[in-house]
Amino acid sequence: MGRAAPLLLLVLALGCANRHGREDPRAPRAEAAPLLERDAGAGTGDRSDGGALPTVDAGLPSANDADPADPAVADAGAAAVVPERRRVVIQGAGDYILHTRVHNSARFHAGATDDPDIAATEGYSYLIYKVKPALARGDLNLFNLETPLATERHPQSGDPPMLNGPPIAGVSLARTGFHVASLANNHAYDQDLEGVVETRRAAEDAGLLVVGGGADGDQARAPVFVERNGVRIGVLAFTETVNRTTLVERGSAVVPQVAIWRGDADLETVRSVRRQCDLLIVLFHWGGEFDLVPNRAQRRLASALCGEGVDLVLGSHSHTLQEVRRLDGPDEGTCVVAYSLGNFLSNQGLKYRVGWENPDPDRAQGIPYTRDSAILRATWEEDPEGRLRLAALEAVPLWTENNWLDRFDVPDFQNDVYVAPLAVSIADEERAARYAALYEERLGEIGRALGGDVVLVEP
User: Fold this and answer.
1) Helices 296-307 and 264-274 sit at what angle, rounded to 10 degrees?
2) I need a labelling partner for 123 at 20 to 30 A (CA). Which of 81, 166, 307, 422 fits?
3) Structural domains in the chain?
4) 3-state percent breakdown (helix, strand, coil) of the chain, nearest 5
């Protein structure tokens, strides 16, 4: 990890509640704690190109693909061939948000030569290409697409802002290594009902699988099934709310929509889908914005999902990292709940500098936690009885770089916004020399936010 090796993580105890309902008002500073693990639980590195069909066979090797033993060899006294046990690495990331300055960064860096996909995607790969090595370790990589990729019917303005992006952004996400995108979030209707359909089409055309939104209610709630290394994985997505509630057609299933959570009716959907797969993942957009801990309703719902056999819950919406917990599932299984994986990419937190105490902790521009993020990496392995068991739970710490504070000191200033693993930023001698205190602080805060059930690792 180069210069990253001496840096330490933070492990601080949870604090008390404050007026925002946060049981843990994490401070911007931290004390020393354990090092990042190197190469712990690395994935297979295999990838599928994905596709638009609801079920995908990645064509990866599995135990069932092994050639049968040659009887002649067996008769000669050779040891019997033992089929390889199934193993799958699933990775999740948080909210992908194309704010105006993020768009500017793509446009300003469209000619960068750091990665061949940058020019091919009109600069949108520049925003995320540094996470490619981390994503390459996953057999299935999922995220929340919180920006419509549609015809712009409403400009990016207002509070909350109307979001939108070009279809080429979807291509950049697929080329960087993502496989599944969720449309179930509060910004899904930013470009009207038609925007939901256009976004789904753009993502599928890019090679992504889509859950949580579509041309009607059935498509919005339809699962995606993916085959990886002999493991059949089901994926569902839901959101607690949407911003433009006047567009919600609760009484009709034949208009474009997203999967707004319906309680027991959707628990039955979860129960049904779980019977059709080996592992079940649910992406859930829930909780309160800028909260640092999940609320009681989220905890109750997480428990209910785990009780129905969900193996992994990937949460989003708070724009901050929240704890990752191992809960009990059926049949002595383990259910992993990541209450929020924060912003994978955004323009939030642009005003933050080390030691600055934001006078208004609910203003997105100054909260450093909105730039903290992680790729959660969960590994399941088959035990001798043929059951899939959670073998490792890790996270790659991420930080969104944003040069907004340099605008008065740099001639011909251009926005430079991109996400990178902290290990990559720390290893960059030029950046580390300038931001060493910042990186040490954020590394500690990320470890503290995720909690002790997760091991932080390099990409």
Assistant:
1) 40
2) 422
3) 2-54+84-456 (3.60.21.10)
4) 30, 25, 50
CA gap 321, 344 in Å, rounded? 10
3 state SS of 100: helix
Helix (H, G, I), strand (E, B) or coil at 176: helix
The rounded distance, in Å, linking the Cα atoms of 83 and 229 is: 12
Give the Cα separation of 419 and 425 in Å (integer): 10
Token pair, residue 180, equals 């599944």
Are 149 and 165 in contact by the 8 Å Cβ rule? The answer is: yes
Whole-angstrom distance, CA of residue 442 vs CA of residue 438: 6
Residue at 82: amino acid letter: V
| C-alpha to C-alpha distances, 363 to 95, 133, 160, nearest whole angstrom | 18, 33, 12
What DSSP assignment string belongs to 399-457? EEEE-GGGTTTSTT----EEEEEHHHHHH-HHHHHHHHHHHHHHHHHHHHHH-TTSEEB
Look up residue 74 and give its two tokens. 């067996």
DSSP string over 208-242: -EEESEESSHHHHH--EEEEETTEEEEEEEEES--
Residue 365 to residues 72, 350, 358, 370, Cα–Cα distance (Å): 70, 5, 9, 8
Global pTM reads 0.84
The answer to whether 270 touches 211, Cβ cutoff 8 Å, is no
* pLDDT per residue rounded down to tens, the chain (459 residues): 444 443 333 333 333 333 233 344 444 333 333 346 654 444 443 433 333 323 333 333 333 334 444 444 344 444 566 678 999 999 999 999 999 999 999 999 999 999 999 999 999 999 999 999 999 999 999 999 999 999 999 998 877 889 999 999 999 999 999 999 999 999 999 999 999 999 999 999 999 999 999 999 999 999 999 999 999 999 999 999 999 887 776 556 788 999 999 999 999 999 999 999 999 999 999 999 999 999 999 999 999 999 999 999 999 999 999 999 999 998 878 999 999 999 999 999 999 988 777 766 667 888 899 999 999 999 999 999 999 999 999 999 999 999 999 998 888 999 999 999 999 999 999 999 999 999 999 999 999 999 999 999 999
Cα atoms in the Cβ-side hemisphere of radius 13 Å centred on 40: 18
Q: Are 178 and 135 in contact (CB under 8 A)?
A: yes
Half-sphere exposure for 300 (CA within 13 Å, toward CB): 4
